[in-house]
## 1
Amino acid sequence: MSKTYRPRVESLEVRIAPAFIASQLPAAVQAPLTLTAAQVGTLLQRAAAATGSDDAIIAIVDRTGNLLGVRVEGGVSAAVTGNVNVFGFSIDGAISLARTGAFFSSDQDPLTSRTIQFISQSTITQREVNSYTFISSPSSTIGGPGFVAPIGIGGHFPPGVANTPQVDLFDIENTNRDMLVNPGPSSGGVLFTPGGGSPGFDVGLVGRFNINPAFVPAGKSLVAPLSYYDTLLTSAQRKDPSLPHVPARGIGTLPGGLPIYEGGVLVGGIGVFFPGKTGFASEENSKLSADFNPNKVDRSMEAEFIALAAIGGSKQAGFQIGALAGIPALKGFDLPFPRIDLVGITLDTVGPGGMQGPQNLVNYAQTFFSIGTGNPNSGANQIVNSAAATLRAGKPAPAGWLVTPHAGVGITTVQVQQIITQGIAQANKTRAQIRPLGTTTRMVLAVTDRTGAVLGLYRMPDAPVFSIGVAVSKARNVAYYDDPAQLLAVDQLAGVPTGTALTARTFRYLALPRFPEGINQKPPGPWSILNDNGTDRNTGLNVGSPQPISAFKSVFGFDAFHPNTNFHRFGANASGVVFFPGSSAVYVNGKIVGGLGVSGDGVDEDDVVTALAIAGYEAPTNRHADYYFFGGVRLPYLKFNRNPQG
């Protein structure tokens, strides 16, 4: 079979020009585009044909993360396909990457799983990566989050440059794992799963985040980022605490997850994953990971190329990819490739090397992979819902009020609405670093009461979808942690009194791999997973035998191995801890009544919007975290850009 790859090389000036984006289209053209089932089928065929390998799993999701299609190629190991639990876990690897492409991008900025890894620099341990989500027994040494991420301690930006600070999305991998069943108050944070644990301790939720459906407007129901296992359950079964449930693998940050655009409009994401024999992300042998073997090919690069080929390449990057094994590219599908800078550093989007990334990726593919020689019909499409459909059409992402303002414990409807409205007003004034010049931020804002009940949730048009889960969790985190009546002794920071107003920025600072932030040769922060036994503090690799789940007692480690908890607080109103900025507790007359979470186009922007949203409801100044020290280091509270509206 002849190669059908035909790169078009354009001038450098064209390659760095701003993308043709949906916001530049006339309003009449901006009807919500969604993927059709036929388009999903074509994308899966093109992915299978993109290279000569035959052992990948490909997933397609819409912008909200709904699973639309999965292809398991014919050469995937029998060690995966022959074990129902490992099979579902491996499919979750592809889903996590697809959701990254869909969740973080917008009509104005295409962000990939490679980009998100570049701007997160999380601490990811080998024990976290080489673990199975379907095992939750505290004594298990192979149960865990199964992150689809490179192993390493992170903590520097640019990556690998000594004594540089942390970047935006620390521990992003651990977010967006919420389900419709949570560990209950007596569970110890352990969710029953098919491979371990005990039933009877879980609680079913009435909807995503346990939100009362009476306050969810028609047509704006929220989609939980479920695992493949739970996706195949009926709506009633997904909420049934008597049944086994499996959490998703979080946000994938290995290369292989790309957004899908039609006519310049974001319509979904594609994820390509090579599960090997175990389904672990380490099977891909990524150059980004501390366990990389230079004598073997980097399969994450192949995954990334396959995803790029499936969606037709990128005209703006100079690499359009036509028919593959007779399967034509979808009309109007093209990946925008604008230059995206963060604090003066050009981000990697497709391939390594900033604006040279696509060329570097294609060169690698031409050297190691047989381009365009795969079988478009290899393997089989898998069922993607309880009705046994194999291809589904996508749905648009809801915007506006996702949860209408209403009163909670100690806080009124008017107060909830005022806080969110103030935040929206500031977001519309605040410059977004990752969007085109002159563009303001797009945010998601959430308010909860002290119990963690969501009282108001608003998504600005085109705000990234990942921010829905993040904003809710941020609000819940501070509503619990800053409340002296709720904070458990196991979670309290030594030397800092209960009732101190910590924020998500404070949480991140305490969980970083170096304390103070970014300074080489310094020890891990007090909440870092590197304080737990069994991990090399310089590499993230295992030291000795893998530790059981019960050994992870640090704030960061406990959160990773116990999805959908709120520190050590368990129950229906918990959705994990977020370790990057954009939150504040809510106070009325000096007393804490809830939490505010803000998430969108950058964490410094999140802090700016938070500060203005909370005006009139902020913590008393003498309770701010930056009035206190830990280990002789002043704790951070909020931080602003010098000219956030410039």
## 2
Amino acid sequence: MLLSLNIKNYENTSMYFYFQLQDEDGDTSKENAASFEETIISLDEKFTQVLIRLLDRICNLGYDNNNEKLLNVFCRLDFNLFYTDILIKRGREKTIQEDISG
């Protein structure tokens, strides 16, 4: 029962990110992109942001429910820790910003 809820939650999260990438009103239209390189950079940044959010949610689901299958998916998607390093850097930036403002 718990596993089926986790899988359903994972499916809902996956569909959310799929529709985020399919957004037609994004910055990828020909009018907004001045060049091919800018379009590629924009798509790369958008994909990275969506993938990082997905990995973060998978990681949280796996730890909250002690579900090794979700953590295995997380490790496969982030096999070289590239996205984990980005999350760590963002966490440090948020901490520094909170220290300055607080």
